[in-house]
Amino acid sequence: MSDPSIVEEDGSRGMRSGSVAGASTGSAAAAAPQERQQDRLILQLSFKPSQSPRYKYLTPTYFEKHTGVAAVYTSTPEDVEVIKTWPGGNGITSDKVPTEISYITPPGATGVQANKWGFQFKPEEERLRCIKLFLDRNQKLPHFVSPLETAAQLRKYNKNVVDAVSDYLTAIYKHTMDTLGRRYGDSFMASTKVEFVLTVPAVWSDAAKNATLQAAERAGMGNRHDLRLISEPEAAAVYTLKAIQPNHLKVGDNFIVCDAGGGTVDLISYKITQISPLRVEESAVGTGGLCGSAFLNYRFEDHVKSRVGASVYNAMKPRTRMMGLKYWDEYVKRNFNDEDQELPVPFPGLVDNEEAGVEGGFLVLTREHVRDIFEPIIKEVVELVEGQVETIKRRGGAIAGIVLVGGFGQSNYLYNRLKSHFNAAPPPYSERPTNHSIVEVMQPVYAWTAVVRGAVLRGLEGSMVVSRRSRWHYGTSYATVFDEEKHPISDRYWSPLWERWMVSDRMQWHIAKDEKVSERKAVSFHYTRNFRPGQSLIVEDDLIACDMDVAPDSMKKGLINVCTLTTDLNAVPKSLFTRLTTSKGIEFDNLDFTLDMTIDSASLIFELKVDGVPYGKVVAKFH
Predict the structure, then answer these.
(1) By CB neighbour count within 10 A (0-12 exposed, 13-18 middle, 19+ buried), where does 575 fall?
(2) What is the mean pLDDT of the chain?
(3) Distance CA 611, CA 22 (A)
(4) What does pTM read for this prediction?
(5) Which of the listed CATH numbers 3.30.420.40, 3.20.20.80, 3.40.50.720, 3.10.20.740 matches domain 233-292+383-466?
C-alpha cells in the first residue's frame, strides 16, 4: 500500500493539499454571473404585469443608527429610488429610518409582538438600539451600548439577537412592499420578482454575515441562495467611482473609500484596472473602527454634563434634553465648519448660569468647544485613512483620491480636516493635482445614501471588483505521517488502517492574509478519507481563520473556528471509492475529494467535488 504524506482515517478531519482552481462548473459561484446576465435580459422587458416576471432590486442597508432602502428596475437603471416615508415620521421625509425596535406583551395576550420601530418612539420610551452590532461577537462595542441591558431586554421577551434583527427587517420589508404596492399597484408587484441585496460592514466576521442572511431570510426577503451580501464600503465604491467623470480616472489609480456612518467608519481601497467597463481590484485590506458620528453625540452629552453639572443635566425633563441633543445632531454637528462663531443650543427651561454659558434657555458653544468634541473622533478617522494611504504607498501605488461617503462623510469639518492633513486641493472633482504627494478628498452627491445606491447598482450590473484582499488566513487541519524531525513524539498516534505512526491537528493555510482572491476562482481544499464498511458518509470539517501576521503550522490558541462544514458523500458514486486492505485483512474504502470555497464581497460559498465533478452543496454552520 502506498505511503501518502498526508492522510487520515475513519472519516475524521484531514486534508492533502490546497490549490487555486478554476471557477466551479455548476457551483453557486459560477452560476451567479449567468443568473445576473439572464436577469438583465428578462428585466429589460416591459413593466406591464401581463408580461413574464420582471425583477426589482431592493437594498436595505441597516447601519448602527439608521436603515435605508433603495429600489431600481433593470429597464430604467438610471432611476435609483430611495424610500423616504416611514411610519411615525408625521409626513416628514427621510432617506433613512432609525434602527430601533421595541416589544410589548398586549394586555390579556400570551405572545410577544413587535410594537414600535423606527420613528415611532417618544424620547423617553425604552427600545433596543444598535442591535446590529451584537451580530458580530468579535467586534468591540461602543461605550454607550450596554450588553447587559440589551441582554436583559431580549430575555424579557424571550428573544435573541437574530430574532430582534429579523423582526426589525420584517418591519422594513413589510413597509417597503406596502410602499411599492401603493405606488405601482398590487397586480404589478405580484408579477414582479424582487431580489434583495444587503450590505454589511467590511470588518465583520463570516459568522456575523451568516447571521445577517439568517435574519433577512426569516424576514421574508428570500432564501439565502437568492439574497446577496455586499460590504458597505464596496457598495459605496460602486456608486462613487461611477459618479466620477471617466476622464478623471486612470488605470493604476487608487481610490480610498471612507464610509463614515453613525457608529462605524469603514474603509476600503481600490485600484482601477479597466475604465470601460469599469473594473477595480482591492489594493488594501479593508479596515474600520468605532468612530462614527454617534460618538460625537455622546461626547456632546458629556460636554453638557461637564458645563451644567451631572445633577442638573439628569434633572432635565426628557423633552428638554432631547431638544438640545436633536439640535446638536441635526444642525450644529452637521454644519460645523470651524468658523469663529457662537452656536446657541436650546435647552428650554434650563436656569441661567453665566459661568456655564447658559442664558435664556440656550447653552452657548464656542468654536473651541465644538472642536474639542470633534477632535478625538476626527483623529481616529484620520488615522484609519492614513493606514490605507501608507499600505498603498508601501506597495508603490499612486493614490488619486479619498472619497467620503455616509452620514458622517457629509461633515464639512471632517472633509476640511482630511483635506488639510493630506494637503489636497479643492474643489472635489477638480483637475488632477500635479503634485504626487497631494491626495484629493472628494464628497460625492448623495453621500449619505451612496451605500444603498451603490448596492442596487451592484445587484443590477454585477460586480466590478475583479479581486479582493483576504482579511484572514484561511485553512484546515489535517493528519499526516509522523516525522521525527518535524513533530514532537508526544503528538504521534498509531493508525490501524494506514499502519503508520501519525500526527493530527497540523494546519495547511489555503489563503494567506492580504492575499488576492477572486470570486471567479474557487480555492480547493483537498481531502482523503477512509471509511470502514457501514460507516456514515456524512463528514465534518472545520474552516479555521487566523488574523496573525504569520500563521502557525499546527492548531493552537488564538485561531478562530469560522464554521463547521458538513459534507454528505452519499451522492458520490461508489465506483469512485477505492477499496483497500491492511496487512491484517481489514478492509476499508478510501475517497479523495475537494471542497471548493469561493469568497465574494461578503460571504463564503462551498461545494463538494470529486475528480472535478460537483456532487452537491456543503452545509456551513458558522460559529
Answers:
(1) exposed
(2) 81
(3) 13
(4) 0.76
(5) 3.30.420.40
